[in-house]
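Why do we care about 3D structure at all? Because function follows from shape, and shape follows, mostly, from sequence. That is the central idea of this module. The next example makes it concrete: a single protein chain, its amino acid sequence, and then its structure expressed as C-alpha cells.
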Amino acid sequence: MRKNLVVAIDGYSSCGKSTLAKALAKKLGLIYVDSGAMYRAVTLYFLRNNIDVNDPAAVTEALKHIELNFHSRDYESHISLNGEEVSEEIRLMPVSERVSEVSANKSVRVEMVKQQQRMGKSKNIVMDGRDIGTAVFVDAQVKLFMTADPKIRAERRFNELRAKGNTDLTLEDVFENLAHRDYADTTRKESPLVRAEDAIILDNTELSEQEQLEFAISKVQPFLVEH
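And the structure:
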C-alpha cells in the first residue's frame, strides 16, 4: 500500500461527511481526521471564555492557550480540548450556532490548517471539512464534494439531535440553523465552501450510507496501490 494518500471530503453541513469519512477509514485502513471537530472545539473554548471573535488580539491570544488532541476508538474520532474530552459537547446547538463565525476567522483557520497539514504527512488519511480540497490539501489524490437536499439534511440532523436527548428543538430550528451555516460557509472571506474543480460530486439525497460508501470506495481504491 502506498503512503501519504489523502482523501479530502468537503461539503455542506449535515450531509454525512463524517459518517462517510469514518466508514471509509475503517474499510480501507486509513486514518480519520475530523477537521470540523477542531473548529467546534475552538468555538467551545471561545464560548466558555467569552472571546470576541471580532477582536484580533483576543483571538490571537486565545489560540495560544488551545491544545487539541485526537484519539481513536473503533475508528470513532474523539477530541480533547486542553486535556478535557469534549466530543459530545461540541455537537450541541450553542456551538453549532457559532462555529461558522469562528471558522471564518483568518487567524483560527491559519492555525487549524497548520495542524491539519502536519497530520497529513507520511500517513494515509481521510479528512472531512469545508476547505480540505481547496485549501488544506489542494493536491489530495481523491476529492469528494458532498451535498443533499436541504430538507433531507435538516431531517437527518433533527433526528440525530433528538436521539441524543435534545427534545426542545423543532425541525424548523434545525432547518434555519443549517440555512444560516450554509450562507456563512459559502460567503465567508477566508476559505469559503466551494467545490474544487477536480472534486467528484456525491449527492446522497437518495443514497443509503452503504451506497455512498461503495461509491467512495470505488473512487479511492485505484490510488491505494503504488504505481
